[in-house]
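--- STAGE predict ---
source: upstream dedup step, 1 unique chain passed
mode: sequence only
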Amino acid sequence: MLEHMKGAIFDLDGVIVDTAKYHFLAWRLLAEELGFVFTEEHNERLKGVSRTRSLDILLEIGGMEFSEAEKLAMADKKNRLYVEYISGLNESALLPGVKEYLNSLRARGVAIALGSASKNAAFILDKLNIAGLFDAVVDGNKVTLAKPDPEVFQTACKELGLQPGECVVFEDAEAGVAAGKAAGMLVVGIGKPEVLKEADLVVAGLHEL
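--- STAGE serialize ---
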C-alpha cells in the first residue's frame, strides 16, 4: 500500500515527536490549581482530541463546571504552560526514523502534509528543524472539527491537490485512525496493534518503515 501512495499525511504528537508528556504536565498543573488530581491514566482520554474538548474532559474528571469565558481563560493558560515546556525542543526530540523517512518520501516524489489538532504545529515543526519537509501544514488553526471527524485529513488532502484514495495517514491515536478511515484513506497506525485495530498496517514507529 505504501509503494503506490502519492501523499503522506502525518499526525504530530506520537508520530513525529512525543509532546504528549508536555501536554500531560500542563493539564496536571491546571488540575492541581483547581484542587484535584489528574493522572496519566486520565490523560489517555485526551489523546488526539482538541484543546477545548480536552478541557471539558478534564473538568468532567474533576467534577467541576465553569462558564465559557472561564473555560476559555483556562484553555489559554494551559496553552501558555505547554508552550513554555516545548520552547526548548530541538531536532533531538524527533522520534526515531522520522527525518530519514520524510527524506525518503521526498526523494520518491511523495507529497507530505501534517494533519494535527495542535494549534502549535508550525511552531513545533520549526523547533524540530523539519518545517521545510512539509508541502502543507493543516492544524487546529485551519480546522474546527476534532478527530475522529475527518476534516483535518480531508483539508490536508485538498491542500496537496490529491484524492483521498491517493493518500496514506500516519496516526498513533484511535480517534485519528477513525478520522483517516472516515476520510477514505489508508491508515498506518503507529503504536500497538491491539489498540489501533482499525488501521490497515501497524508499526512501532516510522523507523520500521
